[in-house]
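[Q] Does anyone have a clean structure-token version of this?
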Amino acid sequence: MLLLGLSQAAAATEAGGRLADAKAKLGALQFEPAARRVAEALAAGDAQPSEVAELYFVLGQASAVLGRDAEALEAFGRALSIAPGLSLAPGTSPRIAAPFRAAGERLAGERLATSPAVRVLDTGLAEVLVEVRGDVFRLVERGEVEVQSPTGWTAAPLAPTAPMRATVPCAREGCAYRVVLHDHPGNVVLEAGTRDAPLRAFPAQAPAAPPAAVSAAPVADQVQPASPTWYRTRWPYLGAALAAAAAGGVLAWQYGVQDARLRELQAARADHLFSEAQGVDRARMTCFVGTWVGFGVAAGFGVAAAFNW
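[A] Here you go.
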């Protein structure tokens, strides 16, 4: 594992050096040497996705200046497939900007992507399906699935089917894995998961238990009608009607008392103040109004009770 890590680090250093050299030649306006250096770097097959995108970006600019418009469009398209955020500097020559823009239009917002699907089997294996999306410029040629085990990482090649597939060792309780896709020379153009943050495969959940069978009992035994809410019964309205009628009756009696008192005052008006008669009359009229209000409310509640009987 240590030797593998050292070899990968060395390859990354070499790929980065080739990319820096190609950029330097492009900056020095050495377009043909820059294009050749990119071709050499891609042919080495040891570049990572970000390096592949930048190499194609350099190649697109050099090819556009050299008048190779078709090559420039394809190079820009492959660069944008991997890194959609790439952009040209403001004021870039239209000779370069035209194929770059055409590549973006051809991609129409797509980018190289995949969402692996995995099925853990009872045999200690897992089947991984990899469907590649957004490969408008035909970058992906092959790939593999790496699975983590107690002894390290093991790789299984993806069969060139549609979708690509591989069967890998995987414990019944699940396993960690990652998917690596390459172009024809072997450069990595897309990764799903990393060794530090791998994807996880889990066994399928057992199907839920079927619902309990319903017995053939009479419908009345199976479903009981819900009790009506309190405001849909007659009792609240009936009680309110009785209370309102009782209040109206009390006020009617009070009206009679106040009316009799007023008649007494009128009969002996010489012995009483006018303000006393006014007070009794107001009380009499209040009882009169309250009587009719009470009986009216009682009638309303009575109707409501009848509707909910």
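[Q] Thanks! Anything notable?
[A] Helices lie at 2-27, 31-44, 49-65, 69-82, 94-107, 219-222, 235-267, 274-307.
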